[in-house]
Amino acid sequence: MLLLAKKLEQEIRDHGARDYPHECCGAMLGTDGDAGAREVRALFPLINRRDDSPRNRFSITPEDFRAAERAAAERGLDLLGWYHSHPDHPARPSEFDREHAWPWYSYVIVSVDGGVPKDLTSWQLEDDRTKFQPEVVGPERVAGQGEKD
Ligand SMILES: [Zn+2]
């Protein structure tokens, strides 16, 4: 399960709307709890560097990866995954997404329909990399709840 505060979810939607009709992308930083829930605490927007087809392809360069890891470390957080938008396409991973994804990370996809953000989903690649499994996206943890040791 991916805990994503409404405010951060809105930031992803806004980023998708802003970059429409191109794809937006960014990193999600947070904590990976041992209760099976990871919590996004901050976003790290990236520039979609693919100039051949920025409309339906997103890719993370090694520089992006290092920058995202550095941003996470500076905040004392982990790099939990990545988000990107699907302009005028459903919020489901494409074959291209699968080929370029890594296991363990959460992949959030927001569909942007005619410039308006719609569905937001999250996915995790199976260890054998054959397919994605949907991941539940939940609201943020209520303060004081679930923080016990
Ligand atoms: Zn995609």
Give the termini distance in whole angstroms.
Answer: 19 Å
Strand order of the largest sheet: 7-6-5-4-2-3-1-8
Q: Indicate the mean pLDDT.
A: 88
At CATH level 2, the architecture is 3-Layer(aba) Sandwich
Unreliable stretches: 144-149
**Bound small-molecule species:** zinc ion
Q: How are helices and strands ordered from N to C?
A: EHEEHEHEEEE
Q: Give the fraction of residues assigned to helices.
A: 10-25%
Secondary-structure-based class equals: alpha/beta
Largest sheet: 8 strands, mixed
Description of the structure:
Helices cover 21% and strands 36% of the residues. It is built from three helices and eight strands. The chain has an eight-stranded mixed β-sheet with strand order 7-6-5-4-2-3-1-8. The chain is globular and about 40 Å long. It binds zinc ion. Zinc ion binds next to strand 4. Zinc ion (ZN) binds next to strand 4.
